[in-house]
Design a protein that fits this description.
Number of helices: 8
Largest sheet: 2 strands, antiparallel
Helix content: 55-70%
Strand order of the largest sheet: 1-2
Structural class: mainly alpha
Low-confidence stretches: 1-16
Radius of gyration: 22 Å
Strand content: under 5%
Mean pLDDT: 77
Number of strands: 2
Shape: globular
Order of helices and strands: HHEEHHHHHH
Length: 279
């Protein structure tokens, strides 16, 4: 078997004419090799970017109540452990960036992260112009959208308001967390000299998720005022609970995606004819 240096793939991403030759697998033409690698990159990038677009719309439109604990019997109400519905598919974005980092290198992973930021801005623009253009809603004398008998805005404007309220938090947290994820991933890869695949997968995701969760909770509350805060309870305790709950959910998701990442990488490097990773 001819083994091409893994450092070339690490620095520049897979080159069209280079392929690792596995026993039992036929050698691919340059055209077929390039097509396989670009199709997989497109699939991973599409899942990543599509999830981001969905998160911007779903975001904090609903919070899922996990459970409640009454820490202080002398105060009415209890502390709620909850996660926003937009958090549910979010760990998938980190699995995608880990695959891209491992198979295509840091440059392409960072490029996808920046495209994701542009996509966020595009979604916000569509939400803004969709509400700015005239529609069929009832408007007041100064052009404001009127609420219905229940005091609620039309569905689009409620979703738009929540999306705008959380978009600053999500974009800042997303950009910082994804860049941290890519950098930490490659830090562990250099430190272990390409070994311990599970360590760079979990190490990068867990650090970046802590950054993301803390940033999005704090910014969503102090800037957007969109968290379901109980005024009868201690504010910082509730914020800590939101951060801890969101991070615990992402921690569990990160641990669960370790096996798919290791198995997926093992099969994908063969499919793409890349040198096998060192677990």
């Amino acid at each position: 078997m001819v083994c091409y240096p893994r450092t070339m793939q690490h620095l520049h991403g897979p080159l069209p004419s280079e392929q690792y030759r596995y026993e039992g697998l036929k050698e691919l033409t340059e055209h077929e090799l390039h097509r396989r690698r670009e199709r997989l990159f497109l699939l991973l990038s599409g899942i990543f970017l599509g999830t981001l677009a969905m998160l911007n719309i779903l975001g904090i439109t609903r919070f899922i109540k996990l459970f409640e604990i009454d820490f202080d019997k002398g105060i009415d109400g209890s502390t709620v452990f909850a996660v926003a519905v937009g958090v549910l598919p979010y760990p998938m974005t980190f699995l995608c960036t880990d695959f891209i980092s491992e198979l295509y290198g840091r440059r392409r992973a960072n490029a996808v992260v920046w495209v994701g930021l542009i996509l966020n801005l595009w979604v916000v623009f569509i939400l803004w112009i969709g509400g700015a253009l005239p529609g069929f809603e009832a408007v007041g004398p100064e052009g404001e959208i009127l609420t219905d008998a229940a005091g609620r805005l039309p569905v689009f404007y409620e979703v738009r308001s929540l999306a705008f309220g959380a978009v600053t938090a999500s974009m800042i947290a997303y950009l910082v967390a994804q860049l941290v994820d890519v950098q930490v991933f490659h830090f562990w890869k250099r430190l272990t000299r390409g070994k311990h695949l599970w360590l760079r997968n979990n190490g990068s995701t867990l650090v970046s998720q802590l950054v993301d969760t803390t940033a999005v909770i704090l910014i969503t509350h102090f800037y957007a005022k969109a968290l379901p805060i109980n005024p009868e309870q201690e504010l910082w305790l509730q914020l800590f609970v939101f951060i801890a709950t969101g991070y615990a959910f992402k921690l569990l998701a990160a641990l669960l995606d370790t096996l798919p990442f290791i198995i997926g990488t093992k099969h994908l490097v063969r499919y793409l004819r890349l040198p096998p990773p060192t677990a």
